[in-house]
Fold each of these.
Amino acid sequence: MRFSGKVLSIGFLPLLAACDTSITPITNAELSTIAADRELRLIADDQEPIDGTVGLHEAMARAIKYNLDHRIEQSNIALAKSTKQVTALDMLPGLVASSEFSRRDSEPGSFSVNSTTGLTSANASRSTEQDTSETNLTLSWDILDYGLSYYRSQQSGNDVLIAMEQRRSTVNRLVENVRTAYWRAVSHDRLSHRISALERKASRELANSRSLTNGGFSSPKEGLIYQRDLLRVIGEMKALQRDLKVSKHQLAALINLEPGQSFRVRIPPRKTLPSVQKPTSELVQLAYVNRPELREVTYEQRNAELDQKAAALELLPSIRPYITGNVSGNDLLVDQSWLTAGTRVSYDLINVFAHPRKVARVRNQQALLDARALALTHAVATQVHVAKERYSNLRSETRISAQYADVSRKITQAIATESSVGVTGTQEEIFEELGAILAELRFDSRYAELQTAYASLFAAVGMNNYPADLTGQESVDVLEKAIHDIWVKRGEGLH
């Protein structure tokens, strides 16, 4: 017996060794292949190419259709819906088919003992063949599992709604970012040629001033002061130009163009945006109803309530009625096929002891969600106040920037006229032209901030920056028209 145990132990050693697995890191060659495949799939084969310049609403449409972050949210919704469908199947009865074949190495014969006399039968007999097979088909339905699955299915439905609210939040933020990057890109395309020409002119003037100062043809003090002022203005212009150049790359990423791809944006007129006449208190109430974050936490609170109901349901016994069809290959049976019906009742006694802890966990979860809801409510109210105040201030600042840019433009034109007849010098002309360009850049930058604040105000209130019925699967033209229509209707603002 000890020898047999040792043999079995030695026999099991290879099996135990086979259960272990080695650690295999990804090689650089594999990583290169994976990276190449991902890079190839960054731009979908069916992505519509840009035809001409890109307008604001087309950029929004392309972001909704092609942006990779939005694809994540779409996949999240699809996964949640699939999970809901799978969870719903758990409420169906179980239907299990099984088949078994066995063979003995000896005859399954046996003796019998008379219960009255205690005498053993003289001859052995058997009621089972040496080779046996049996097939079963069992239909069963656990009432307790049905109740729990019903609650789980409701929770899966809430998870779908949560995923939809997360997508809504992502798209609103995406449209905000597109609006900001687009107007900065507009400023870049509008002024880039003028900036480059003026930069060359200023560089020549700077070199001339240094030559005159070094050659003793002008006062060293006046020459250095002039160079300092010239460098200060050029540096400020370059800083603004740098931010505007980055905006083209940001916009390209948002609408999912290939990195480094050259494109131009449409130059629209800068229109005055409307003022907000609706009281802040009404905007806050709208936000309480519409904000995706508040809706999301409300659905999570629903799920917590369902967890509490499920915990109470688990205290009930499991009742499982069943019916089984059996087919046996045993030729010694009188009936080789028969039906079995019955009900199994079971009770998990551990649930009685675990129930208080489960209830405590659910209550703690509910308290956490309630605290989150209150914190979000306060944050949303604050965001609405800040968004409205920021938009109102930027409206005033943008109006001043527009007036300043207009005055600077007129001064530049007047000085250019005087310079052409020799009344003023080149230095004054360059300074005023630089100042006019800077005023234009500041105006564009402020206008881009105003456009962002306008979209942010709608997002803070929870109103979609895009038609809610859009899925992102529509064509760019259809998406662009729908987005255009909703923003045209908003031309009156939050009145």
Amino acid sequence: MEVVDIMREGIGVALKISGPLLLLSMAVGILVAIFQAVTQIHEQSLSFILKLLVVVLVLLIGGGWMLETLLDYTRYLFTLM
């Protein structure tokens, strides 16, 4: 049962860390798609550049928290060994 708990916590940490990146990049993609549909501007690099900027900003703002979350989980795993 302990292995299942460790795996569950690992999946929870992965979701907690990747969630903001994925949700914000998806929201930007949807907004850009709506903008492109309304204006009939179909430039592929527009969507890519905006998503890249959002991901970089999220990493700059929340990177410390993400790293600390991973370190806490790693310390937890080492204490179990």
Amino acid sequence: MNQSFFIAAVGAHQQLKRLGVHGNNIANLNTYGFRAEKSRFASLMYDDLKSVGTATEGGYEGEDPGFDAFPSGVGAALWTTDTDFKSAPLEETRRDQDYAIAGEGFFAIADLTTGEITLTRNGAFVISELMRSTGEVDENGQEIQERIYYLSDNEGRFVLSDKGSMIEVEDEHQPQPVGIFDYMNYDGMEHVNDTRFRAVDKNGGIRQGGGTLMRGFIEMSNADLAEEMTKVIESQRAYGMALKMVQTSDEVETTINSLRG
């Protein structure tokens, strides 16, 4: 089978993956704190081949230094998707529990069930209630519970304060000590979902963020519609060209087979 057939087939499949990346960016244009992903391609098994000779009378043996290397490859693939961490515009909401970060840094939210701490730029928080033991018992020997209110992401996770602890809310109209945290670099951060990230070892140790906390504001998505639509059109054109190449390669192979017959 002609190698061009496989190159084109791989190319078409990879362009579908690229469409999925940019389609997801477009779908999250209105998601608070969303960070767009960028597709990165790499060559597949790309190498330089050299001519290899055989021993002949008065000739050479082994690799022939007189022949230049020539490139050979089998197409390209979507190698990775990088997250674009650039800041997005802030929108004023005037809601007491909406927070945004002007500058670098993340909010940290903790899941008490799993012990996992993840990072986000989505500051659309809410006040949730939790029953907590007081450490005392009543006359019937039952443990006494008290109701507390805390700042959460509305999905059962706690927002961490600048001290790294959960934030108990006593007055919902007062500013809360929401913490801003950061890392030395963001390379390789895991995308947990559309707005949450998980740090990995190479990000370094967590530290206090240098951004400014803005109450009554929310950060929008940093996906740019014009750029994403351009990428979608590019992928559609590349996909169409790859399919045309598959068709042409198949026709060539059919012609060759008919001549052999």
